[in-house]
Amino acid sequence: ATLPEPRTAGDWTAQEIAELQNSMFAEDVAEYQQVVESKYSNLFEHLRALFPDTFPKSQYTLELFRWAYLTVMARAFGRRIDYMSLVPFADMLNHGSVRVKYDLNTDGNDMFRLFPSPGSPGYKKGAEVFNSYGRRDNEH
């Protein structure tokens, strides 16, 4: 299976962004694009300095980096753990307005755990498990 192509407002044309008539949004989009480009430049400048034959510019392009970066950012867990992590299958959970917690590497076990927050009703056997992707309804 192939991961879907990540899409952001950075993929919009200047005209599409202008149609929103929101200069703050346009500035945010431009700033985010600059952040991604800066991360790419800084990382690959360093890698090419250390390993010039391993990371040719023709193969490790900004376009490829952007795809990888946005894919990770769209699926990563990390707000409440020490570092961002891609967790196989966890990004497949449907959104629900539920209170959940997660942790990683508790007691040195290298395991990711996602569980209901204390005080929430929990899950009955056989019930679907949800993750909260933030305060939003299921239409978004």
Please give a handful of descriptors for the protein shown.
mainly alpha, 7% strand, single chain, 140 residues, 3 helices
Q: Strand-residue fraction?
A: 5-15%
Total helices: the number is: 3
Helicity range: 25-40%
Q: What is the overall shape?
A: extended
Cα-to-Cα separation, first versus last residue: 24 Å
Tell me the major beta sheet. Answer: 2 strands, antiparallel
> What spatial order of strands do you see in the largest sheet?
1-2
How confident is the prediction overall: mean pLDDT?
Answer: 83
Number of strands: 2
Low-confidence stretches: none
**Series of H and E elements:** HHHEE
Q: Which secondary-structure class do the elements indicate? A: mainly alpha
The radius of gyration over CA amounts to 19 Å
How would you portray this structure in words?
The chain has 140 residues and is mainly α. The chain contains 3 helices and 2 strands, in the order H-H-H-E-E. It has helices at residues 14-19, 23-50, 62-75, and strands spanning 100-104, 112-116. It has a two-stranded antiparallel ribbon with strand order 1-2. Helix 2 (23-50) crosses helix 3 (62-75).
Summarize the structure in short.
With 140 residues, this protein is mainly α. The chain has three helices and two strands, in the order αααββ. It is extended and about 50 Å long.
Give the SSE map.
Elements: H1 14-19, H2 23-50, H3 62-75, E1 100-104, E2 112-116
Antiparallel strand pairs: 1-2
Helix pairs in contact: 2-3
